[in-house]
Specification:
It is a single chain. This protein is an all-alpha fold. It has helices at residues 2-6, 8-27, 36-45, 50-67, 72-83, 85-119, 123-129, 133-146, 152-158, 166-192, 197-223. It has one domain (2-223). Helices cover 78% and strands 0% of the residues. Helix 5 packs across helix 10. The longest helix has 35 residues, at 85-119.
């Protein structure tokens, strides 16, 4: 009974996620974003109702970020295909950042008290996630946003157990997702638009190289001496 009382938020979180996933399987909500008819309808709105189309995309992406287990790259590819490389990048960044913020807040409310003590027992995770708070905030977000180490949707909830402030999380999330989002939106535009196709491919290739280099550099500089496993002595 004591364990149940202490971890009721965790159990409630698991129950909510399970119910949403079951309902998504039954009603096919996540398939809406991949339905060609829906995408064509959204594309047709852009010329005359750009603001409405943008709000629909942002709303759907926020919902998908928080509740549906869609790969993070999906949102960027859709934005690039529908809105083009520049508006697509901006709208995707706004939508995914908003979704990430909502998931972060949910993770902090439901998971912080029960999961943090368990994670902190691991020396490597404790150093990266909780020690040197000021520096580790930017390092952690830089590494996981530039080179995702685990699924984007899970990341957003998981950050809630860290000591990162909401302000730092929001700002760093937006900044460090720019290269990765632009890589996919601009690369997608290269496939969907005949004009400037090779320019878009060239920019996407440069962004890919930048993301790979920054991910390697940051991990080497800041995580090179973090122990692989084992509990803190």
């Amino acid at each position: 009974m004591t364990w149940l009382k202490k971890n009721y938020k965790l159990l409630l979180f698991v129950l909510i996620i399970a119910v949403i996933l079951v309902l998504n399987h039954i009603f096919g909500w996540s398939e809406y974003l991949s339905d060609s008819d829906n995408l064509e309808f959204l594309s047709s709105m852009i010329d005359d109702h750009f603001a409405e189309a943008a709000l629909i995309y942002i709303g759907l992406t926020v919902i998908a970020c928080v509740f549906l287990a869609l790969p993070g790259v999906t949102f960027a590819i859709l934005a690039g295909a529908i809105f083009g490389p520049w508006w697509g990048t901006l709208l995707c960044l706004i939508a995914t950042t908003l979704g990430a913020i909502i998931a972060f807040i949910a993770g902090r409310f439901f998971l912080h008290d029960s999961i943090k003590p368990m994670v902190a027992k691991n020396a490597a995770l404790k150093r990266v996630l909780f020690d040197d708070a000021g520096r580790s905030d930017i390092v952690l977000l830089a590494i996981t946003r530039l080179v995702p180490l685990f699924p984007y949707n899970i990341q957003n909830f998981a950050y809630g157990i860290t000591d990162i402030s909401l302000a730092h999380y929001s700002l760093y999330t937006f900044i460090f997702m720019i290269p990765g989002v632009a890589l996919y939106t601009i690369g997608t535009a290269g496939f969907t638009e005949d004009e400037n196709r090779w320019l878009y491919f060239g920019i996407a290739a440069a962004l890919l190289a930048l993301v790979m280099f920054l991910g390697w550099f940051i991990k080497k500089k800041y995580l090179g001496d973090v122990p692989e496993d084992g509990e803190e002595k």
